[in-house]
């Protein structure tokens, strides 16, 4: 993104991301938080990565289907960022500019965890790509759902097992246990380094209890009733 298109006006909405390993319950909590915000009269856009815009959803298919070793790690990062820039320009930034709040199921912290730590590309290369392509654009708040990867992977496998093999978006679920343990450690590490942006919640609890912790935090952080 070479031109400056980041929203700066006073009505700019808030940008919230959910992060965490496979099957930790992000999509579930994204929808519940959106319902709370709508109940406060806030106009909310729900989205996800990779995907969220027409072009990014096409790139999603390239990234999530097929064998675990399908892409070289750098190619993979560039595909995630190609999708992210399209998503930012077509969906996220225009919505924030209109005053809508955007909640995304994953954003760039996933790239730092999955490709940076998981694939071993390291933090700095991805930080440079992030700065060049997004002008270092980050959410106002990131909610990290933390769980032992075994629990989330079991839920994700169960979900994928009822889907025809050629339609499964399970490329990353096929990476080994060590990979997923490394992701968890990296998410916690990123959260510890960015305490102003992150709120970490244990995902080993009931949907209602997790929701109640998140909603309490969001209300306080954004001064809602
Ligand atoms: N990726 C993504 C990268 O490698 N780099 C990147 O930069 C980005 C952006 C995305 C994949 O791409 C990778 C990461 C991922 O591997 P995806 O299909 O979007 O793929 O996969 P996930 O983001 O992992 O999403 P999932 O759908 O697998 O899991 P969620 O959203 O965390 O979990 P959710 O809410 O769908 O819940 C799973 C099941 O558990 C139940 C739900 O009802 C559902 O059945 N559940 C609970 N059950 C008991 N207790 C709870 N508290 C529960 N919460 C939910």
Brief digest:
Helix content is 52%, strand content 12%.
Give the key terms.
alpha/beta, 5-stranded parallel sheet, 5 strands, 12% strand, Rossmann fold, 225 residues, binds P1-(5'-adenosyl)P5-(5'-thymidyl)pentaphosphate, single chain, 52% helix
Report on the structure:
The protein has 225 residues and is of the alpha/beta class. It has one domain (15-219): P-loop containing nucleotide triphosphate hydrolases (Rossmann fold), CATH 3.40.50. Helices cover 52% and strands 12% of the residues. The protein is built from eight helices and five strands, in the order E-H-E-H-H-E-H-H-E-H-H-E-H. It has helices at 26-39, 54-64, 73-97, 108-118, 123-134, 149-161, 177-193, 207-221, and strands at residues 15-20, 44-48, 101-105, 141-146, 198-202. It has a five-stranded parallel beta sheet, with helices on both faces. Helix 3 (73-97) runs parallel beside helix 5 (123-134). The protein is globular, with a radius of gyration of 17 Å. The protein starts with 14 loop residues before the first strand and ends with a helix.
